[in-house]
Amino acid sequence: MTPEIDVHLAPGWWRATLESEIRAGLTADRKAIPAKWLYDERGSQLFDEITRLDEYYPFRAEREILQEHSVAITAASTADTLVELGSGTSEKSRVLLDAMRRNGQLKRYVPFDVSEEMLRIAAVEIAEAYPGIEVHGIVGDFDRHIPDAPVRGRGMIAFLGSTIGNLEPGMRAPFIDDVVKALDRDGSFLVGTDLVKDVDRLWAAYNDAEGISAEFNLNILRMLNRELDANFDLDNFRHSAEWDAENEWIDIGLRSLADQRVRIGALDLTIDVAEGEEIHTEISAKFHLDGIADELAGAGLELVDQWTDRRGDFALTLARKP
Description:
This protein has nine helices and 13 strands. The chain has helices spanning 13-26, 41-50, 58-77, 91-102, 116-129, 169-182, 199-205, 212-228, 289-298; strands at residues 4-7, 81-85, 108-113, 134-139, 155-159, 188-194, 237-244, 249-256, 260-264, 269-273, 278-285, 302-308, 314-320. The chain has an eight-stranded mixed β-sheet with strand order 1-4-3-2-5-6-13-12, sandwiched between helices. A three-stranded antiparallel β-sheet has the order 7-8-11. It is globular. The protein starts with a strand and ends with a strand. The relative contact order is 0.17.
């Protein structure tokens, strides 16, 4: 069955959004670059390397949960449609799709991603690997297009990888509200979250000994130099990732090592960055099991179940729309 692909992003969306968000972020009182711009081709390669590091436990922990509990998760959802937000290559989707097929539930798969090229490739591969199911891809932006996803009926929306932890609380609430809008009654939401744990382990996961996390973070400046004719000197910035105990998240940024002036030619913009000032790039929030349930309940979802890895590092939470 040939995949159907809906493209919700207008031509030129990527460039216009990049320019708008970088201008807004670098002229704010607290300079910031949205985390989604970390993932250009090189950034995606570096993040893939990060997931294999000894210090970076979240990927292994979530994979363990999926491998051991996917049949129970999909059975509890009763879903016949899987919608994956940020589907990428759909590698993780296959574990859930296999479980749904074993349970006799699988009818449809809806990958949702901002990258049209990657989504089209993955959609064809899934259609070939799971003959007879409907594959309906969505090329869209999480900020606007989740309610447009064709979930229909007993659908399960999956948001894996603790990506929800990159959203501050004020952004998480409208995000979850959009998920609820996309679900029909008895539809479900499966979300992956990293859990609060020993601070030293948390710190090490974002400050690995090989320096790959630092290279990943600094690469965002290399991307701006290339795409927006900027002249950031990467040697004048240092990766910073520190535990914020009050907010229970890792606060990630690029700290300036000197007073410097940076020109972003494509924006006709010049900014001054003081020694010690940080350009914020990302947070990685950590959660408690009851806190996750409370946030989902606040959006009108009912907790079905929660699963953790053996060490209790990571959780998958399933909730249903009544």
